[in-house]
């Protein structure tokens, strides 16, 4: 009777300590696993090994989910979900190499070029999610939104603080360069940001404009040349030439709609 009471006291204390240490996963699986341990006659080391491994796995998953939430991705994308057969101009081996994150370790850049809808944002986001899973601080932002934020920070005399935040991300994804025109002030702010990140951390860019058109994007030949010089030094460029995924999906939808219409006419002749 005394031993049973002592066991209950120890068990309650164990749960209290787990709660104090915020080991939520261990608390959730403790009862079921202890029953299994008794049934399978597991020793103390095996029990501890399993509980600690599961807690570590749970903490890594929660950290990843928190990182994804803070990264600003508009939608979750993965490399596994990308249809490389639809875009044969892309060398999958090159993408697989980027997915190793060596480019992040080497503080190199990545640029995805191509017309709208070919998968630039999908691939950039997928690489960003891999970076987040590997515990690299990652942030996604649309280029137009970025310039608006920098202008606002400049107006409010907070530009240095904003640059400091953006400069420290190990992976910064700047999406849709060139979709909207940029004035001289915006181009100068963009140049300052790229300079602060140059050869220190990695930036992933997407653009529907060729490099020869970046003079028009940044409204100034000198600024555009200076930006390109820093972007392309230590950089992998992926030039995607193919059809739009959105047009593909539209065509498939219209094809299915036509098939349904044909079926209805066949089953309901006039």
Molecular structure report:
The chain is of the alpha/beta class. It folds into two domains: 24-70; 92-247, 3-Layer(aba) Sandwich (Rossmann fold). 61% of the residues lie in helices and 10% in strands. It contains twelve helices and five strands. A five-stranded parallel beta sheet has the order 2-3-4-1-5. β3, α9 and β4 (202-207) form a beta-alpha-beta unit. α2 packs antiparallel against α3, α8 (159-168) packs across α9 (184-197) and α9 (184-197) runs parallel beside α11 (221-232). The longest helix is centred in the N-terminal third of the chain and has 27 residues, at 44-70. The radius of gyration is 26 Å and the shape is elongated. The chain starts with a helix and ends with a helix. Mean pLDDT is 86; it is low at 1-6.
């Amino acid at each position: 009777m005394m031993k049973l009471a002592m066991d209950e006291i120890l068990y309650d204390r164990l749960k209290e300590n787990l709660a104090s240490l915020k080991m939520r996963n261990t608390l959730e699986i403790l009862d079921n696993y202890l029953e299994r341990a008794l049934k399978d006659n597991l020793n103390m080391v095996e029990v501890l090994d399993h509980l600690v491994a599961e807690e570590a796995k749970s903490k890594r998953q929660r950290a990843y989910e928190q990182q994804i939430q803070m990264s600003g991705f508009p939608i979750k994308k993965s490399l596994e979900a990308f249809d490389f057969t639809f875009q044969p101009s892309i060398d999958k081996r090159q993408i697989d190499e980027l997915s190793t994150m060596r480019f992040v370790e080497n503080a190199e850049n990545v640029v995805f070029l191509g017309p709208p809808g070919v998968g630039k944002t999908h691939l950039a986001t997928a690489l960003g999610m891999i970076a987040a899973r590997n515990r690299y601080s990652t942030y996604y932002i649309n280029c137009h939104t970025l310039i608006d934020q920098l202008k606002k920070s400049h107006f409010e005399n907070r530009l240095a603080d904003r640059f400091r935040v953006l400069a420290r991300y190990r992976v910064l994804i700047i999406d849709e360069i060139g979709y909207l025109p940029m004035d001289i002030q915006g181009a100068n702010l963009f140049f300052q940001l790229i300079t602060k990140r140059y050869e220190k951390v990695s930036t992933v860019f997407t653009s529907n404009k060729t490099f020869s058109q970046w003079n028009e994007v940044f409204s100034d030949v000198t600024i555009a040349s200076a930006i390109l010089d820093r972007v392309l030094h230590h950089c992998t460029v992926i030039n995607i030439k193919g059809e739009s995924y959105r047009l593909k999906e539209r065509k498939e939808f219209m094809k299915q709609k036509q098939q349904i219409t044909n079926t209805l006419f066949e089953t309901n002749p006039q």
